[in-house]
Design brief:
Helix content is about 55%, strand content about 5%. The protein is mainly α and about 325 residues long. The structure holds tryptophanyl-5'AMP.
Length: about 325
């Protein structure tokens, strides 16, 4: 069977380097070897309140960033989730197969709903829609960061359950999680994930941050007690986190980072780290600027939705038939 990769990044905030390191760079890495489906999960974004104008802008922004980072629309299918209604439809079918108990164990739901008065039912059933996203395209591999692992396990469980009940319908997908960069932590606190929802803007670096802002954010990044640039998540989580970022953006191994900064303090390391990130982001930002105002972007998304719909309908019809729903 052909290898097929599928993944997406929610347009619920500006894209930070965590999403790039954990997910986006992997899309680019695998697109030559796999048949790629990269989508913008806008239906997932609206499980929490969104400003409509901002959501519209962010959805195009994320799509432009996919392409600017190297996703090639001639090789891969790039589209908006809401433009392919089969996602919502299979999402419902998946909800009928998912159990309340297993959904209740999802840590992301617990984190996102904690302390909130009004939590949408969609935030709770979100993993069923995510399973639909993946299973619709018979994806074999799903590149994600560590925080999505539990959702992937649930997707696998639902796929197996469905296949056992109704006959072989879905490919059971494998998560693809890189060893370095699977979980980029906040620059202010190495015990919490770098996240676009953190109110402290210095805790993350955005893909579209200017060089001056990137320098400032890294210079403020917390470090650990002694002065050595040494990789040790137990004793030195803050520096280990920065070393992983350096390793990914500088295309060098962790051992090389250690060697390069042996005998040097944090100051020199953080300065060079900022430059390595700036250098990698410069061409991406340039491509983004050229794309974001263009009709070309909308043309790519429209064509992507057409191709995705065609593919999605095959699986949706098979799933409906298998369950006893009439398909004419
Ligand atoms: P989202 O939008 O929160 O994050 C997008 C991707 O980026 C990864 N990521 C990180 N990786 C490392 N360190 C970080 N600090 C970091 N922050 C984010 C995430 O693991 C993810 O891979 N539910 C998904 C979106 C989604 C999806 C899908 C993904 C919907 N349907 C189908 C794959 C397949 C989400 O909320 O990711």
């Amino acid at each position: 069977m052909a290898k097929r990769i599928l993944s997406g990044i929610k347009p619920s905030g500006d894209l930070n380097i965590g999403g790039y390191v954990g997910a986006l760079r992997q899309f680019v890495m695998y697109q030559n070897e796999y048949d790629g489906f990269f989508f913008i999960p806008d239906l997932h974004a609206i499980t929490v309140p969104q400003d409509p104008k901002e959501l519209r802008e962010r959805s195009r922004q994320i799509a432009a960033l996919y392409i600017a980072a190297g996703c090639d629309p001639d090789k891969s299918t790039i589209f908006l989730q809401s433009q392919v209604p089969a996602h919502a439809e299979l999402g419902w079918l998946m909800e009928t197969q998912a159990y309340f108990g297993e959904m209740s164990r999802m840590t992301q739901f617990k984190d996102k709903s904690e302390g909130k008065d009004a939590v949408s039912t969609a935030l709770f059933t979100y993993p069923a829609l995510m399973a639909a996203d993946i299973l619709l395209y018979q994806a074999t591999h799903v590149p994600v960061g560590e925080d999505q692992k539990q959702h992937l396990e649930l997707t696998r469980d639902i796929a197996n359950r469905f296949n056992n009940r109704f006959g072989q319908t879905f490919t059971v997908p494998e998560p693809v999680i890189q060893e370095v960069g699977a979980r980029v932590m906040g620059l202010d606190d190495p015990s919490s994930k770098m996240s676009k929802s953190n109110p402290n803007t210095s805790s993350y670096v955005l893909l579209l941050d200017t060089p001056a802002v990137i320098r400032k954010k890294f210079s403020r990044a917390v470090t650990d007690s002694d002065m050595a640039v040494r990789y040790d998540w137990e004793a030195k989580p803050a520096v280990s986190n920065l070393m992983e970022i350096y390793s990914v953006f500088g295309d060098v191994t962790i051992a090389e980072v250690e060697r390069r900064f042996e005998g040097q303090g944090y100051g020199a390391f953080k300065k060079e780290l900022a430059e390595v990130v700036i250098a990698k982001l410069a061409p991406l930002q340039e491509k983004y600027e050229a794309l974001i105002g263009s009709d070309e972007l909308d043309r790519i998304l429209k064509e992507g939705a057409r191709k995705a719909s065609e593919e999605a309908h095959k699986t949706l019809d098979a799933a409906k038939r298998a369950m006893g729903l009439l398909v004419y």
